[in-house]
């Protein structure tokens, strides 16, 4: 069984709160139990990334509304953390010296889209995709609703809430950032008149 964790944090790469501790520990226990467990996270400009070497294993483009962005997938040597960590590098949006800001909608949507775009190229799709907090909350929706991710229609997803205070709300006028889906189902994204990634998951 292959489990993919998609997360904005992973200790010791990038830590703001308890999310990093969970994502930095759970894959180790799963691998010890015979589960092939991996992490996909953003590639930040921080002390950890500056201190380690990465291999570029994939490059492509993603579409965010009407904008086309280049992205890379970088891999950290498994020996560093005892499990595979893959980094999504979207130079124009993600490669910053901080994890969170007040303008993260585009950043984390690009991260999720790039992650799914890359995963669709795998010969053997993951058995489970485990998403963590609102930064990855639209991934389960896109797996089920977006035409370009039809390959994941039958792939189970797990969503863990680590911090319910932050839910990633954004206005419906940004719904076009999400890849094409049946707009009759837009209500699945709505909570109190806004798009709420935490609730949508």
Q: Can you offer a commentary on this structure?
A:
With 201 residues, the chain is of the alpha/beta class. It has a single domain (2-200), classed as 3-Layer(aba) Sandwich (Rossmann fold). The protein has six helices and nine strands. It has helices spanning 18-32, 47-51, 78-81, 105-119, 138-145, 197-200, and strands spanning 2-6, 36-42, 54-64, 67-76, 84-89, 128-132, 157-160, 190-191, 194-195. The strands form two sheets. It has a seven-stranded mixed beta sheet with strand order 3-4-5-2-1-6-7, with helices on both faces. A two-stranded antiparallel sheet has the order 8-9. The chain is globular. The mean pLDDT is 94. Residues 3-201 form the Starch synthase catalytic domain. Keywords: Glycosyltransferase, Transferase. It holds the Pfam family Glyco_transf_5. It catalyses: [(1->4)-alpha-D-glucosyl](n) + ADP-alpha-D-glucose = [(1->4)-alpha-D-glucosyl](n+1) + ADP + H(+). Its EC number is 2.4.1.21.
Helices and strands in order:
Elements: E1 2-6, H1 18-32, E2 36-42, H2 47-51, E3 54-64, E4 67-76, H3 78-81, E5 84-89, H4 105-119, E6 128-132, H5 138-145, E7 157-160, E8 190-191, E9 194-195, H6 197-200
Parallel strand pairs: 1-2, 1-6, 2-5, 6-7
Antiparallel strand pairs: 3-4, 4-5, 8-9
């Amino acid at each position: 069984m292959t489990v993919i964790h998609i997360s904005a944090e992973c200790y010791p790469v990038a830590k703001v709160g308890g999310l990093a501790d969970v994502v930095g520990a759970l894959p180790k226990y799963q691998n010890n139990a015979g589960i092939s467990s991996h992490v996909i996270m953003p590639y930040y400009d921080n002390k950890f990334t500056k201190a380690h070497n990465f291999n570029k294993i994939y490059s492509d483009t993603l579409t965010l509304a009407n904008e086309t962005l280049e992205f890379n997938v970088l891999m950290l040597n498994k020996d560093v953390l005892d499990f595979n960590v893959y980094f999504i590098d979207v130079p124009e949006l993600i490669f910053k010296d901080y994890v969170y800001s007040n303008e993260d909608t585009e950043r984390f949507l690009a991260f999720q889209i790039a992650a799914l775009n890359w995963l669709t190229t795998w010969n053997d799709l993951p058995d489970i995709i485990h998403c963590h907090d609102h930064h990855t909350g639209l991934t389960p929706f896109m797996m089920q609703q977006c035409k370009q991710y039809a390959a994941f229609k039958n792939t189970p997803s797990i969503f863990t809430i680590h911090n319910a205070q932050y839910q990633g709300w954004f206005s419906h006028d940004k719904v076009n950032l999400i890849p094409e889906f049946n707009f009759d189902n837009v209500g699945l994204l709505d909570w109190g008149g806004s798009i709420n990634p935490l609730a949508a998951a």
